[in-house]
Design brief:
Helix content is 39%, strand content 23%. The chain is of the alpha/beta class and 237 residues long. It has one domain: Rossmann fold (3-Layer(aba) Sandwich). It has 10 helices and 11 strands. α6 links the parallel β9 and β10. A 7-stranded parallel beta sheet has the order 5-2-6-1-9-10-11, sandwiched between helices. Strands 3-4 form a two-stranded antiparallel ribbon. A two-stranded antiparallel ribbon has the order 7-8.
Length: 237
């Protein structure tokens, strides 16, 4: 089982492109792939049904990726506030039960987080507690344009202090022909000051992206074998 928890260093990490891209790539390599979103915010109501904008985008990348959710909340606030507005309590036991139910259905299984490690889900229950509870490796998505090296280092070192198993970092929104010294040095500084590997560097994307283009960018810009910690025969041919 290739399990991974994907979250961002901040709200503007564009992790949805990483989650969708990794999932579509693994699916294209022959792995049955599923995505579990324990808490999904900013969902919309369409003909009486709740629809996730992230789920719709993932399905556009590959309609065969299976997607599961426990809490779907209309508000675009943080999960705790969104749950209060929807008169719902986010229960860790329910998330764990659903995770265990969905986990064995697919060969590759990604859990898609919300706004970062310190995101509150319930009283005394942060996203970092959720990751610890599920006991799967963390992949942190960092936006080269909006994240600061200070925040990245704090986030990664905090995860280490919490004994969260860290798989690595993927840098998103990395400008082509970058001249900004802060961004150019970001990959090196992350590895030097956190002992965490940068496993991929990706450009900026938009929601009109062609699925084949996203998969190509993932294959060219990300060490997929290192992300999932498994040799993939098709990538070694």
């Amino acid at each position: 089982m290739l399990d991974l928890f994907v979250t961002g260093a901040d709200e503007k990490s564009d992790k949805i492109f990483v989650t969708a891209g990794l999932s579509a790539t693994m699916q294209s390599l022959g792995y049955s792939t599923g995505i579990y979103k324990p808490v999904d915010v900013s969902v919309v109501e369409n003909n009486g049904f709740l629809q996730s904008l992230d789920t719709a985008f993932i399905k556009c990348m590959d309609a065969y990726i299976k997607i599961y959710s426990t809490y779907m909340l209309k508000s675009n606030s943080s999960p705790l506030i969104a749950a209060l507005e929807n008169k719902i309590v986010i229960e860790k036991a329910q998330i764990l039960s659903d995770f265990q139910k969905f986990q064995g259905i697919n060969e590759c299984f990604l859990v898609d987080g919300t706004f970062g490690l310190a995101t509150p889900l319930n009283k005394g229950f942060l996203e970092e507690d959720l990751i610890k509870m599920l006991d799967i490796p963390l992949l942190l998505v960092v936006s080269a344009k909006s994240s600061t090296i200070n925040n990245i280092i704090l986030t990664l070192n905090h995860a280490k202090e919490k004994e969260i198993p860290m798989r690595g970092v993927i840098l998103s929104n990395y400008p082509e022909n970058c001249e900004n010294i802060d961004i150019k040095l970001m990959p090196r500084l992350i590895e030097e000051y956190t002992d965490t590997k940068v496993l991929g560097i990706l450009p900026s994307f938009n929601k009109n992206l062609n699925p084949n283009d996203l998969i190509t960018e993932i294959l060219n810009g990300v060490d997929v074998e290192a992300v999932f910690n498994v040799p993939i025969a098709k990538l070694q041919m």
